[in-house]
Amino acid sequence: MAGRLYIEALDTARLLDDVVIDHPVVASPNLAPRHWLSMLRLEQGHIHLGRAFWGMTPSWLKVLNHAPHCARAESLDERRMFREAFSARRCLIPVSGVYIWKQLPRQKQPFLITRVDRAPFMLAGIWCRYMTDTRTAFDSMALITVDVDAPLTPLTDRFPAVIGAEQAATWLSPETPLVQARKLLAPAPPALLGAFPVERLVNDPANQQWHCARPTGHMLTATRGAIHATGH
């Protein structure tokens, strides 16, 4: 699953070319669901960087705490708001890392998942628009999660689908056949991601210090299907 996000002040040029910047990147060392974040979406043939609320909020939703912040790739067709958004309103969320928690005998240990090279990456999502009146609207979104491969298998069974820059236009376009879009929802390549334990300070979403992401141990990576530790 994806409980929190680590988002540095990203340079979108490192992710995609020719992005229209409608809103600066929302940076946070410990961003929790039901907060605003940055979202890439297709609008009139151009990729735009804007803002969205993390939690799908269609106009008929009555309780904000019920806004789902993740959707399982396997069950996108089971709920109307997921099915319609997956068909026509796919998005990407630029991040520097994703926090997950591993259950230990007496407590949970937070880990930060990043690219091995620490470059930013993009997570697959779906979005919807809610008109508050005839002139005002806001966008909201949910991440799409998939099963995991090494090196994440010892830590969690779900993680947001990672979309590469070369796949971004295909994922974002509503003209892409759904069969083709579904094929992009796969576990990240094993060599792409690594995980390292971080301070338990991150357990409280009110803590917004950047050292929430400070490593407290070695990074786990996958090489030839085996997990090993590297220096951090």
From TrEMBL:
GO BP annotations, alphabetical order: protein-DNA covalent cross-linking repair; proteolysis
One Pfam family in the UniProt entry: SRAP
Annotated transmembrane regions: none
Keyword Cell membrane in record: no
EC number: 3.4.-.-
Record-linked SUPFAM superfamilies: BB1717-like
Record's keyword terms, sorted: Covalent protein-DNA linkage, DNA damage, DNA-binding, Hydrolase, Lyase, Protease
InterPro entries: SRAP (IPR003738), SRAP-like (IPR036590)
One annotated GO molecular function: peptidase activity
Family the entry assigns: Belongs to the SOS response-associated peptidase family.
PANTHER family to which the protein is assigned, alphabetical: ABASIC SITE PROCESSING PROTEIN HMCES, DC12-RELATED
Stated name of the protein: Abasic site processing protein
